Amino acid sequence: MRTRPLPARTMACTLAAMLLATPALARNDRVMLDWQDVLGGPEAKTRLAVDVALRFGDGSTPAAAERKEVFQANRIARASDVTLCQQTRRGYSQQACDAASCRAAATEALAELQKRAREVGADAAVEVVSNYQGNAFGSATQVECHAGGTGGHVSIRATLVRLGRP
Fold first, then answer.
1. What is the dihedral of CA 64, 159, 50, 120, to 10 degrees?
2. What single DSSP character describes residue 90?
3. Of these four, 15, 40, 75, 109, which has the most CB atoms within 10 Å of its CB?
């Protein structure tokens, strides 16, 4: 059986496609923020309400709480949407922009938790923990965020409960 040589045009196109194909180089930097920095930020002052309490970390559920549901909120805040990205004398500050994006994403995720809590008749979100890609990080003081080209990505999980406060 004889094989025919490929036409030069086909070989050139194949070679060009191979040279132009490059792997994706997506950034996925882990950024740890203190919950206090998130709650004290300007976004939190306008987005979060006091009618739904937030309790951070594993084991923060009071014994008398009536459990409503476990809820997960996933939020991405694009750096271009965040006004806190700063320019420095040496140029663009990636760390400042990542932190601002992550604060905004965490605030939006907490606001989503509070909204869902109201919908199910809960007055608190307890055991609020980071849950990036299903890996729980149960810190009472920090939230895990992943920053990249799309901005900051925060996933938090919480148990929505009714504490029975007046």
1. -90
2. T
3. 109
The pLDDT tens digits for 79-125 are 544 455 655 445 567 787 888 889 999 999 999 999 999 999 999 99
Contact 141, 35 (CB under 8 A): yes
Q: Does the CA dihedral 125-126-129-131 come out positive or negative?
A: negative
**In terms of DSSP bridges, do strands 151-162 and 66-77 run parallel, antiparallel, or are they unpaired?**
antiparallel
- Do 145 and 28 form a contact (C-beta atoms < 8 A)? no
Q: Is 154 exposed, middle or buried (0-12, 13-18, 19+ CB in 10 A)?
A: buried
* CB half-sphere exposure, 11, CA atoms < 13 A: 5
